[in-house]
Amino acid sequence: MRTDPVNKVREITSGQGADVVIEAVGSPQTTEQAIQMAKKGGIVNIFGVADTKAFSQIEPFDICFRELTVVGTYAVTLDTFNRAAKLLASGRLGIDYLLTEELPLYEPEKGY
Q: Name one GO molecular function term (predicted).
């Protein structure tokens, strides 16, 4: 059984949505979900690198009505990547609930 990430965020925030959402996958679907996860007045940071031909379906009215701030970030160095990997590995971020399934490296298509 798969968990709907937007519903999960709404559930753990008592229906409010997240103050800040960082989209780090780089797919149109996760970009759309990130916008849906943000609370009114929230910030959405699009960090994941999408294919140059990828398009997301977003509702500009929704962004305006909910007063969202949407920012893009494209700045990664080997040092920052390694620091982020160490932070994730330390377990201090408490993200286990985001991981719903483990897939073998030889079957990446099952993740989409």
A: oxidoreductase activity
